[in-house]
Amino acid sequence: MTDTTVLELVSPSALLKSEPVEMVVVPGTDGNFGVLPKHSPMISTIRPGVIDIYAGGKVSERIFVAGGVAEVNPERCTILAEEAVPVADLKADEAQARLEAAEAALKSAETAHDKANAERALDIARAQIQALTN
Amino acid sequence: MASLKDLRSRIASVKSTRKITSAMKMVAASKLRRAQDAAEAARPYAERMGTMLGRLATAVGSNEGAPKLLAGTGKDDVHLLVVFTADRGLCGGFNASIVKAARLKAIALKGEGKTVKIICVGRKGSDALKREFGDNIVARYTGIEGKKGIDFSSATEVADKVLALYDEGEFDVCTIFYNKFVSAISQVATAQQLIPFAGEEVDGEEEATGSSAVYDYEPSEEAILADLLPRNVGVQIFGAMLESSASEHGARMSAMDNATRNAGDMIDRLSIQYNRSRQAQITNELIEIISGAEAL
User: Fold this and answer.
1) How far apart are CA A45 and CA A28, in angstroms?
2) How many CA atoms lie within 13 Å of A38's alpha carbon, on the beta-carbon side?
3) Cβ A73–B213 below 8 Å, yes or no?
4) Annotated catalytic residue B174
5) Are strands A58-65 and A42-46 parallel, antiparallel or unpaired?
6) Taking CB atoms and an 8 Å cutoff, what residues of chain A touch B226?
7) Which of A18, A73, B10, B105 is surrounded by the fewest CB atoms within 10 Å?
8) B35, B249 in Cβ contact below 8 A?
9) From the CA of B45, how many Å to the nearest CA of chain A?
10) What is the CATH number of domain B24-255?
11) What is the mean pLDDT of the segment spanning B82-101?
């Protein structure tokens, strides 16, 4: 396995990662998908979840993303993430606090817009907790 | 003719002013560097978002099902202007130029019989606009720039407000006004249409390499667009905030540089005046003594 594809992970405030990888698994909205070199071009939205970066057939790095979009073409995989944190840096109590805040926001939400926002925050918090448990 | 004591105290006060302005210049210079770095770091995201959106927009075209954020509401009666200024003054023409641009636009729109709504980001803008357009201002945001610079969450806050207003059908077209950072001594007041999305970022080269491949869309073009467009609003606003903040510090730096230089010139002038009048006084006293002695 010498073939690699370039993974670019970009958040609004910085280019977080731009390096060749053997494979990445991206949590797409319609299910996880793995990106290997020479993947056919596609664009997909991402749900809150964990990006797994593989090296030597094993997961070498796990990064939590709070949603975004991914663009894949044969040479590279570009991920635009709204928020990206290595799973190792996530804290269980912070995620729990986030979950509670989101639940409270959902309860007090009045407009449809607020509600949608709160639901999104809730999804993110749940995904964080899930990322921590496995 | 000012007395020697007056001159002395003026020189002292100009000196302390110079100290303040030169300190402010130094602070602005270091903040400028940070703001510039932040603006540059944010560029890749905005660029990629732009190309992706451009590609999607061409794929979806102007279908019936195209999201409102792309196709617009079909009217152009109510305009929303989002004006980005600084919270603080003492930065030369920075705030004035952006306020002027927004004012002209607002007046022109009103002249055409359209309704204008304004969101002010930054205290100076709302201070300057509230006299004339007080009733048109729908929201104000201040304290955007924290200790660590600008956070994406503050951009999301503004974007959420804009999107909520759009969903409620409160406006048809949204334009943002901000100072684009060119260099430390030059900022350009820029107006940019935010809603409906005006795809201009896909340039020829990108088009050639990008569209030759046929993309798969998951879940579907429309769903991705519906997800991306609101996000793009946030990104554009974030970009405007960063540009504006870099411009602000640049403008402040050059304004303070000028002020420091002017203070130096003033000190020189006052010192000459002080020395001359002191000399004149001494001469006068001497003449008095001599003529007094001669009279004896």
Assistant:
1) 6
2) 2
3) yes
4) no
5) unpaired
6) none
7) A18
8) yes
9) 6
10) 3.40.1380.10
11) 90
- Identity of the amino acid at B221: E
* Nearest-angstrom CA–CA distance, B55 and B57: 5
CB contact under 8 A, A113 and B160: yes
Q: Provide the whole-model pTM.
A: 0.82
* Cα dist from A105 to A108, B195, B227, whole Å: 5, 28, 22
Q: Is the pLDDT of residue B187 over 60?
A: yes
B200 pLDDT tier (thresholds 50, 70, 90): low
d(CA B54, CA B235): 15
Give first-to-last CA distance, chain B, whole Å: 32
Domain ranges of chain B: 24-255
> Of B82, B91, B129, B263, which one is the catalytic site residue?
B91
Q: How far is A112 from chain B (nearest CA, A)?
A: 9
**DSSP 3-state of B279:** helix
pLDDT band at A88 (very low <50, low <70, confident <90, very high): confident
Over residues B122-173, the pLDDT tens digits come to 888 888 888 888 888 888 888 877 767 788 888 888 888 898 888 888 888 8
Residue whose structure tokens are 């205290």: B123
Instruction: Please tell me the predicted confidence (pLDDT) of residue B270.
Output: 95
Among chain A residues, CA nearest to B227: A45
